[in-house]
């Protein structure tokens, strides 16, 4: 799917479906919050949520006292919905509206979070581009969490093909820049009472000189 088509697709979804009726809806993103707690991130940590849209992770991060949060999403509508929900608290968040493949980070982040965005990249060049972006955008010894549909999960989401991953394929994909900390599977129950199996992997950015060389 071309970039323009991707944007139109997601704008249409957010314009026509309320938050509680999208398959990825979570009133409390328990898995993501558990991992953030395990990492013991300082409140000043620079956090970015990729494909965050109007998910509720940002609400919980603000409630926990995190001070430097960025939410990136391709959909202008999803960002505006999140801002409206947060009210004056939205001013405490940096909002970026762009396709992840067009994202050119101007700073480095201590924690990169992506639940269900990475698996929409099905072309090898796009996957490689995403990985290079993480290698440039995450600080040395920074942390990353990626959640995708597993081999037992759906093959499509919102009418779009996705790429399934296993714990091993996820680890292999990011090994150029990251050391895997742990991977595990978790079931997500959608608002429609269906089950989607995810694989979550947490990583630590390698602190080496050699990874500066792009292969």
UniProtKB/TrEMBL annotation:
InterPro entries (UniProt xref): Methyltransf_12, SAM-dependent_MTases_sf
**Which Pfam families does its entry note?**
Methyltransf_12
Q: Which domain of life is it from?
A: Bacteria
Please provide the record's keywords in A-Z order: Methyltransferase, Transferase
Q: Name one GO biological process term.
A: methylation
Q: Which residues form the Methyltransferase type domain?
A: 48-143
Q: Show the GO MF annotations.
A: methyltransferase activity
Query: What is the name of the protein in this document?
Result: SAM-dependent methyltransferase
